[in-house]
Amino acid sequence: MPTIEVSRQDLCRLIGKDLSIKELEEVILYAKGEIDSIDNDKIKIDIKDTDRPDLWSVEGIAREIKSRITRDVGLPEYSVLSSPIVIKVDKKVNKVRPLTACGVVKNLNIDENILSQIIQLQEKVAGTFGRNRKEVAIGIYNLDKIKPPIKYTTVKPDEIKFVPLDYESELTPKQILAEHEKGKEFGHLLKDCKEYPIFIDSDNNVLSMPPIINSNYSGKVTEKTKNLFIECTGFQFKFLFTALNVMVTALADRGGIIESVKIIYPNNSIITPDLAPKKTFVDVDYINKISGLNLTKKEMCTLLEQARYKPELKGNKIELLYPSYRQDILHQRDIVEDVIISFGYNKITPTIPKLPTVGSIDKLEQFSNILSEIMIGFGLQEIMSYILTNKKNLFDKMRLEQEKVVEILNPISMNFNVFRTWLLPGLLEFLSRNKHVDYPQGIFEIGDVVLIDEEKETRTTDVRKIACAITNNEVNYSEASSILDALLKNINITYKLKKTEHKSFIQGRCAKVLINNKEIGIIGEFCPKVLENFNLETPVVGFELDLESLLNNK
Amino acid sequence: MYELTEEGKKYLKEGLPEINLIKKLKEKELSFEEVKKLQNFNIALQWAKKNNWVKIEKGILKLTEKGKKATKEKYETEEFLKKVEKGLNKKEADILLKRNLIRKITKEEIEAKKLAGKEILNLTPELLKTGYWRKVKFKPYNVEIPGKKIYPGKKQPYNRFLFEVKQKIVNLGFKEMRGPLIETEFWNFDALFQPQNHSARDWTDTYQLKYPKFGKLPKKELVEKVKATHENGWITGSKGWGYKWNSEKAARLMPRAHDTAISPRYLSGLKGKLEIPGKYFSLVRCFRPDVIDSTHSLEFYQLGGFVIAENLTFKDLLGLLKMFAIEFAGTEEIKFYGDYYPFTEPSVQLSAKHPKLGWIEFGGAGIFREELTKPLGIDIPVIAWGLGVDRLAMFKLGIKDIRDLFTQDLKWLREKEVIKCQQ
Question: Is the domain B2-104 a CATH 1.10.3470 member?
Answer without folding.
Answer: no
